[in-house]
Amino acid sequence: MKPAAFFLLLTLIVRAVAAEPASTNAYVTPRFSDPDRRARLDALLPEIDREFRDHAAKKNYPGLVWGIVLDGALVHTGAQGFAHVDKNIPAAADTRFRIASMTKSFTALAILQLRDTGQLSLEDHVVRHVPELARTAPLTADAPPITIRHLLAMSPGFPEDNPWGDRQLAVTVAEFEAFLREGLALSNVPGVAFEYSNLAYALLGQIITHVSGQPYQRFITEKILRPLGLKDTVWEFSAVPAAQLALGYRGATGAWQLEPLLPDGTYGAMGGLLTTMNDFARYAALHLGAWPPRNDPESPVARRATLREMHLPAMFSGLAAQAKALDGSPQPIVNAYAFGLGWSFDSRGVVRVGHSGGLPGFGSNWRFYPDHGFAVISFANLTYAGTGAVNAKVADLLIEKARLPRRTLPPAPILRTRATQVAQLVQSWDKALAEKIVAENFFPDRALESWRTHATATLAQAGAIKSVGDIVPENQLRGTFPLHGERGRVDVFFTLTPERDPRVQELRLTFVPKP
């Protein structure tokens, strides 16, 4: 990885992770600053539907289904075209599509469930659970063993295998084990580079089977699908009633050719699930519900901390330096792979998590926005249908045009208390108050008289202070509040220390004139 890209990634990760609040018993479910967010979304639905329909027509999809999840509920669905072209069966929210690599997060979640119950460690050497891998020689003498964590983050050293891996879906367990005993070719040593690997997730399926004592399909069905009520989500297409099954097609000219559906096999862990929009929305809601950290009761499927672990970047995968915003302005994006999910952070500070899926006959994408509380999902039945671009366009419309706000964190009691005290301090610089609330570094970093001079000059620009605004938390120990004056406002930013009784370690005053 180039140093510049590495340090940019570190900077963005720090900014993203810093938004996770510190633990406090006073922490409650966050609110949204705009109570009209649903109305804003609804007003945009005609444009959203038009985007999806235009995309389906442009790409000549046989069928396309889309949905939007907001605040834990599927609030909108749409469909275009056919699930079965010859029989004119329309695509719908209850049509079952093969979602291909969108399956990977189910496999990753199953691994983390086994970790959480103490049945495996992410640092386990893969050969412990898949002994056939012992026939693969390390690429170099200093290469570390391949671990489960490497498989989850797609950094085990296997070569990128999309064209080949997509044709392995029906491979049996016996065939897979025989393949592994022959030894694998490696492209990198483990842990140094991201390469998209279906093989890695097929191995994770084998690990689930080995550790749980039952086929991974049954384990995922019993531990994830059924508890979430995903009654129409299955592994084998033959189990789906013909009227509810989306057939896959190849060809973009209108003369679609039927793509044979591959039966489920050991590679299904990387891309075998079939589901409906109604079902998958419930799964998306589970992931959205993991944010932000709070004291609410946990889901029986997975702890919120486990889900958040899945969402956070594990391996740098690329920098989209030329990416553009809706208006065409530059909007570079840093990308990483998490656990069965992709992660991105753009120059607006918007975090996106999700995954695409593509197999012969099918293409799909889902992406969710933890800070904004919504997800966009789409399924199509054309080989490698690229629905990610239209999903991204719709998500940008929701953020920029519908102006769906970010969650507003409730301030911790200590943050609210310190905000009141800081408002008094910057106007008085009372020594007794300062001794009570500032940290030991504060005045050595900048002398009291210097602070007094700076604050007096900054406040003078705003004129007489008329009111003090509410604290807007950045996290539970850092935030900003305004001092409103006659000619403008002064934004007061402060950061508290990690002491048991947190004190002010940093302070910034910024004058903002009235428009």
Please explain how this structure is put together.
The structure is a single chain. The chain is of the alpha+beta class and 515 residues long. It has a domain of 101 residues: Nuclear Transport Factor 2, Chain: A (Roll), CATH 3.10.450. Helix content is 35%, strand content 22%. It is built from 17 helices and 20 strands. The strands form five sheets. Strands 4-3-2-14-13-12-11-10-9 form a nine-stranded antiparallel beta sheet, sandwiched between helices. Strands 16, 17, 18, 19 and 20 form a five-stranded antiparallel beta sheet that branches. α3 packs parallel to α8. The protein starts with a helix and ends with a strand. The relative contact order is 0.14. The N terminus is likely disordered.
Mean pLDDT rating: 92
Order of strands in the sheet with most strands: 4-3-2-14-13-12-11-10-9
CATH level-two architecture of the domain at 413-513: Roll
Helical run tally: 17
> How many distinct beta strands?
20
Broad CATH class of the domain at 413-513: Alpha Beta
What coarse outline follows from CA principal-axis ratios?
globular
> Strand pairing plus helix content: what structural class?
alpha+beta
* Helical residues, percent: 25-40%
Radius of gyration: 26 Å
Strand content: 15-25%
CATH topology of the domain at 413-513, by name, is: Nuclear Transport Factor 2, Chain: A
Multimerization status: single chain
Largest sheet: 9 strands, antiparallel
Give the terminus-to-terminus CA distance. 45 Å
Instruction: Detail the poorly predicted runs.
Output: 1-30
